[in-house]
Design brief:
Layout (H helix, E strand, L loop, with lengths): L1 E5 L2 E3 L19 E3 L5 E6 L18 E5 L18 E8 L3 E10 L7 E8 L11 E3 L2 H4 L9 E9 L8 H9 L12 H11 L7 E13 L1 H5 L4 E12 L2 E10 L6 E9 L5 E4 L5 E4 L4 E2 L1
Parallel strand pairs: 6-12
Antiparallel strand pairs: 1-4, 2-3, 5-7, 7-10, 8-11, 9-10, 11-12, 13-14, 14-17, 15-16
C-alpha cells in the first residue's frame, strides 16, 4: 500500500502474482482520501510471502576462461539445458586440423588443486572418423595448485574428418561431363566450363556442422575437502566444407597377377589450390574445380 502524510488517507491493498523472470511489471496502487487538503506520497509498503532454503557451501576457487579465437554469437540449440561460459566458431575444410588455445585464470581467492577436462558431442548425425577434439592435460595439471591471479593454458586440437560421400548428384554430373578421366590443363575449355558449372551449383560447396562442449571441472580450498566443485563449459561450433572427392576409381593390371594399379580421379571442390600428397612422396597440385588422375 501507499505511505502518505497530510490528510487522512485510506490505502487500499493491492495483491498481485509475478510470473518467473517477468522483468518490469506494472502495478497500480490506489486509495481513498477521507478529508480535504494536501496529500504527500512518501513511498509504499509491501509484504512478500513464501521462502526458500539456501545451502551455503565452503569456499571454492573461481576460473575465468578465454580462448585464442573470438567469441561466437552462435547459439548451440541442443544445449538449452546447459549453461555455457563461452562459445567459439571455426570454419575448416574436411580433413583440416586447427589448434584452439584455452587460457584458464584463477580469479577467486582459493587455490585450484584439481582440474579435469571432458568433452561431449552435441551433433552426431554425420559419420565422423577419428577424434573431433583432443588434448593433453598433464602439463596444465603439473602446474597445480594454481594460486589466485595465476593462469594456465590448455591446447585443444580440432580435427574434422566427415563422410561427404553422399554427394552423388555432383559426382554424377562430373562423370556425365567426362571430367574424371584425365588431368586438365589450366587453359582447357572443358575445365573452364566445369568451373562455371561449379559456381552455379550450391551443392558443390556443401557445408556440414559439428558441435561439442568442453567441460572443465575444478576444485580447491575448503570446498574440495567437503567434496564440492565448480564447472566451466565452452561450446565449440565448426562448419566443415568439403575439400576433395574421388570421382572415379579404376584398376589396371600389374606385372604380377597378385597385384594391380589403383587409379583415382581426384576433384578439388574448394575455391583454393589443393596439394594432395601420396605415400611415395608424390604431390598432386589441384587448382580450383580441377580434376586429375
Amino acid at each position: 500500500g501507499l505511505l502518505t502524510s497530510g490528510v487522512e488517507f485510506e490505502s487500499l491493498p493491492a495483491g498481485l502474482s509475478l510470473p518467473a523472470e517477468s522483468g518490469l511489471y506494472p502495478v497500480t496502487l490506489v486509495g481513498i482520501p477521507r478529508t480535504s487538503g494536501n496529500i504527500t506520497v512518501n513511498g509504499l509498503t509491501s509484504t512478500k510471502t513464501g521462502g526458500c532454503l539456501v545451502e551455503v557451501v565452503p569456499s571454492l576457487p573461481r576460473l575465468q576462461l578465454t580462448t585464442s579465437l573470438p567469441r561466437s554469437v552462435n547459439v548451440l540449440a541442443p544445449l538449452s539445458k546447459e549453461e555455457l561460459s563461452s562459445r567459439v566458431s571455426l570454419q575448416l575444410f574436411n580433413g583440416e586440423t586447427q589448434k584452439l588455445e584455452i587460457t584458464l585464470e584463477n580469479i577467486g581467492t582459493e587455490d585450484i588443486q584439481s582440474l579435469e577436462l571432458t568433452s561431449k558431442m552435441v551433433t552426431t548425425k554425420d559419420k565422423m572418423y577419428g577424434e573431433f577434439l583432443s588434448w593433453e592435460l598433464s602439463e596444465a595439471v603439473s602446474q597445480l595448485p594454481l594460486k589466485p591471479g595465476q593462469a594456465v593454458s590448455v591446447v585443444v586440437g580440432v580435427r574434422v574428418k566427415l563422410d561427404f560421400s553422399g554427394q552423388e548428384n555432383m559426382l554424377q554430373e562430373l562423370n556425365d561431363d567426362g571430367i574424371s578421366v584425365t588431368g586438365l590443363p589450366i587453359s582447357s575449355p572443358l575445365r573452364q566450363a566445369l568451373k562455371a558449372r561449379g559456381e552455379g551449383k550450391t551443392e558443390y560447396s556443401h557445408v556440414k556442422s559439428l558441435e561439442a562442449v568442453l567441460n572443465f571441472k575444478y576444485s580447491g580450498g575448503p570446498g574440495k575437502v567437503e567434496g564440492y566443485y565448480r564447472e566451466l563449459s565452452l561450446g565449440v561450433h565448426v562448419d566443415v566444407e568439403a575439400s576433395v572427392f574421388f570421382t572415379r576409381v579404376s584398376t589396371l593390371p600389374a606385372t604380377s597377377t597378385r597385384q594391380c594399379h589403383l587409379l583415382l580421379d581426384v576433384f578439388n571442390s574448394t575455391e583454393h589450390e589443393v596439394t594432395v600428397s601420396a605415400k611415395n612422396n608424390q604431390d598432386l597440385v589441384l587448382h580450383t574445380s580441377e580434376c586429375q588422375r
